[in-house]
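Incident log, support desk, overnight shift.

02:14 A customer reports that sequence design results differ from what the structure should imply. Their input is reproduced verbatim below. On-call engineer (initials T.W.) acknowledged and began investigating.
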């Protein structure tokens, strides 16, 4: 009986020694980078500039569209009195203008997409620096992007998005350089 008790005691001591020590509590935080981009001072300012450019392009496109519709309507009214050759030439001319219009729309969309990507490339590294600083200072072991489709659940108490916005607002981010005609021509030559 003593031998059995000694064997059980030895087994329990060995088991306790082999078990890992309890790990320190993990602190996981969540951040919505898109919200930081849209709600921070720098993000709001960039969005306002973006909106101005967008509205200007939108007005130009709408004006051109209206002009093309007027020309098409005028052609439809004049067509019965035109010769077949003149009507065909006018039709080809309108088709050419419509293709130019489509290129104008496509070009505007491409430019707006490019500007949006430039803003992201500019701000996201700065936002990540703020996230790293908060993580180190407050002892987070992991910060996850809320919009990542892999995150199934997140406790809202560990959401540091507002804190990131507040600290990102304190950072002075250099203004993007305005493109001059010279630098624009150099880039087109390449």
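02:41 Re-run completed on a clean worker. Output:
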């Amino acid at each position: 009986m003593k031998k059995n008790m000694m064997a059980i005691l030895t087994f329990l001591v060995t088991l306790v020694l082999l078990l890992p020590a309890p790990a320190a509590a993990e602190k996981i935080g969540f951040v919505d980078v898109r919200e930081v981009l849209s709600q921070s001072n720098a993000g709001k300012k960039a969005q306002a500039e973006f909106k101005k450019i967008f509205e200007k392009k939108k007005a130009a496109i709408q004006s051109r569209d209206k002009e093309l519709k007027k020309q098409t309507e005028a052609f439809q009214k004049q067509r019965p009195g035109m010769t077949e050759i003149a009507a065909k030439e006018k039709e080809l001319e309108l088709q050419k203008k419509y293709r130019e219009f489509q290129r104008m729309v496509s070009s505007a969309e491409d430019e707006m997409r490019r500007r949006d990507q430039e803003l992201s490339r500019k701000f996201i590294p700065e936002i990540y620096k703020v996230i790293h600083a908060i993580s180190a200072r407050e002892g987070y072991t992991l910060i996850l992007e809320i919009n990542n489709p892999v995150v199934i659940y997140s406790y809202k108490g560990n959401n540091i998005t507002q804190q990131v916005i507040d600290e990102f607002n304190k950072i002075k981010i250099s203004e993007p350089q305005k493109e001059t005609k010279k630098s624009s021509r150099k880039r087109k030559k390449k």
